[in-house]
Amino acid sequence: MSTVHxxxxxxxxxxxxxxxxxxxxxxxxxxxxxxxxEKYRKSLPGTFFISWLTLPSQVxxxxxxxxxxxxxxxxxxGSKSRHLKELAAFLAPQLRQVFSQSVEFPSGEPSEEKLxxxxxxxxxxxxxxxxxxxISTAEVEQEAQLKSEVLSYMQKQESLGPAxxxxxxxxxxxSFVSSHPKLHWASGGIPFSSQNKVQMxxxxxxxxxxxxxxxxxxxxxLFTDALLFRWLAWIFPVFLLITGALFLLLRLNENNPHEPxxxxxxxxxxxxxxxxxxxxxxxxxxxxxxxxxxxxxVFLALTLKLVGLVAxxxxxxxxxxxxxxxxxxxxxxxxxxxxxxxxxxxxxxxVDSERRSMNMAVIFSHAFGFPATRWLVHKQYNHRSEYMxxxxxxxxxxxxxxxxxxxxxxxxxxxxxxxxxxxxxxxxDPAIKDWLLTx
Amino acid sequence: MSKLEKEDIQGLLVRGYGNLPSAKYLLYTGSQRKETLDFxxxxxPKITPASEKPANEALHLAxxxxxxxxxxxxxxxxxxxxxxxxxxMAELQRQFVLGDTGENAPQHWDWxxxxxxxxxLVYGKDENQLNETLAGIRQLSDAKGITELxxxxxxxxxxxxxxxxxxxDISRPIIRELLSHPPQDPDSTFPAGEFIMGYDNLYDxxxxxxxxxxxxxPNNKLPEHRDDSNLKDLGKNGCYLVFxxxxxxxxxxxxxxxxxSSDPSAAIGLASKMVGRWPDGSPLTLCPFQPDPSQSDTNDxxxxxxxxxxxxxxxxxxxxxxxxxxxxxxxxxxxxSLEMAAKHRMLRKGxxxxxxxxxxxxxxxxxQKADDGKERGLHxxxxxxxxxxxxxxxxxxxxxFHKFGxxxxxxxPIIGNHYQNERRKTDSxxxxxxxxxxxxxxxxxxxxxxxxxxxxxxxxxxxxxxTDND
Lengths: 439, 470
Prior knowledge:
The complex is a heterodimer. Chain A has 14 helices and 13 strands. Chain A is α+β, with helices and mostly antiparallel strands. A five-stranded antiparallel β-sheet of chain A has the order 6-8-9-7-12. Chain A has a four-stranded antiparallel β-sheet with strand order 1-5-2-13. In chain A, strands 3-4 form a two-stranded antiparallel ribbon. The longest helix of chain A has 28 residues, at 193-220. Chain A is globular, with a radius of gyration of 25 Å. The two termini of chain A are 29 Å apart. Chain B has a domain at 6-243 and 453-467. Chain B has 13 helices and 14 strands. Chain B has helices spanning 33-43, 65-70, 75-79, 83-87, 92-98, 127-143, 250-259, 264-275, 318-322, 334-342, 363-366, 387-400, 460-467; strands at 22-29, 57-63, 118-124, 147-153, 211-212, 224-225, 228-233, 239-248, 347-348, 351-353, 377-384, 429-431, 438-440, 447-457. The radius of gyration of chain B is 22 Å and the shape is globular. At the A-B interface, α4, α8, α10, α11 and α12 of A face α4, α5, α10 and α12 of B.
């Protein structure tokens, strides 16, 4: 068991002519959602976000047409099988109605079990980021309520003023929480905290150990000729060699003339931003074919694997969840993010910081129309404007979008968690004062 | 570093005209294209370039998108302007982005909904000089059948204050290219391209600028676009001008402070927490407990080291939102915060309007005065090269976003739109304190938008091109 956040991406091909019909269905579900928001929340208790859209065909390398598709992208907490069952149980009619438009869907009316199998078969891997790691859907509300109750309590406590000792204040809060019937749950620790970290970090640890073992074996080979060392010794040099060769090939590819994205018409931009009307959280889907050259596909695939390994340490301000993946044999890059406020503001999080614009280039520089780079991360010309143009040019309209949490920003969620984490934890006075600022 | 073409830049971009205290902003609509072009043509020689420091009067001219369309600029030229400018401030999506909803919605504005064509900003060394200049302009406009829709008065207030009684306009970005000896620290100044089109900005690129295909500039008035030799740069040496008339409810403001404080001094303290500076201008970050007149002009302070938690100057205070300096809660380093904040600055050029509630603008006296029923406020004017990145970003993401900096229900306490509905509550103000933050609720709107529009503020060659376009 864990409360690690994950992303499910299901995709099937679609006859381009059926796009308007599927879009119509998805738009209807979006309208229904306004009426049945609570029903969704109750019936999909492990699901944070759902984006469901159609993708028209796109042209790769000026000659290959990549097929039209249906994409279902969800963010969830817990196990994949439980999530699939949850989706199939609640959204079965909608899933059948939409996916049956694809030739890849099983004939007839598949049972829920078959639907789960179908979703599983059609799911593809992604590199996933969460800005509020390890918080479950239920905890979103619990922790908000906890903080709100404690705040009300503190505002009524005339005896706890500026002259009170930090330890006294903390003790009073903890007594209040322990004795409050609705907050008693917070007296225990945060569940799965160690398991969560292990689950997220073990692939990185395994990778690091493998590389370390290889380096050690290289050294050991100076003293011994054991078979295990001989095998292990290959791994690190081969990894370095492949990465180095890919870098060189990429650098050569970067000399191709930059082809900017055609600017999106004002009408199209209006159509996209017209859906960004939620007061706190909004969504963005960007899908672009890659730039010419097989090296782009391979380099991006390797990059996404490595980014996935370090996702635990990644930080993107104001982003609830984000994911990157490749489709159609690596020829398309898919990026989807759920973020605070509007897409214009969110896009600035990338381009306004020199460091982050370098990080962003590691992935986006492979996509068609995105800014040209040198040695992957170094800017060429008009980096900022080309990036903003690239995002808009490849941004897709998400016909159906659902969010479990609609009212709390990432920073709100993190502060609520920080407050809970500090409860019943030993702290010195300065630490208590810092902790009290999270209320 | 490129040299500024000051002869081609309208002087307002480099001066505030403190020596010309009288000013009026005139909003016009033309009825006949040819007459309007004649009118503009006759005004061009009177426009004050940045190369001059006028002692008596100054005149500046800016156009709305409707104005440029009325002058029949060719479609490829009109299309090349940014979407925000083309849509205009009162458009539905722009309303949403700017938070101009409810009481602040354009349907309640005095101006800005009707087709405005251009704006004249007229400055004089005194009222006589101003009236003389205005009389000359009116004679010309009457002769050409140009309708003056509004003449918005201004009046500088004592001690560089605004109507609530606080020192204003202390933090101003400095254009690097204007300094004869630019400082070693590049963070303290800004490249011209942040505020003037045709020069490098903070991203080492040109801001998006309106352009003209060469065949539409047969008289070769315009310079070539640096990034595209197939286009002429209509924006070079110009910028966008954002104008918002903001009515200030001075009695409401001080009534709220008094109602939520134990005594007048605490009321001033609360108002100062909302602003982020004491009424005399001294910053709370440096003087958290009482004002220090010696710090009235101080702008050299930061938050990352001095006040990260907002215990001195609250995270949601007005000055921390409009210029977060080196600390944004969502950033993990001082460097990232600095980089982020720098990319959303504006050159403010507005002036107050209406009579002060009390001439000395001392908060202790203001708060004792009853409402005199007179209108007063601020003509907020800012100059930017990118409306969306600079003005709209700040207004949307920092001023009105109620989740700014990890807050929950707090829009900017001074200029934010305060309201509650089923999806959003924006009328709180949180003050971080030990042992627990203090929350002030049900803030009324202390300001109201009464009008506004986006203008193109062209360079002088571009002005000549506009009148030469037949």
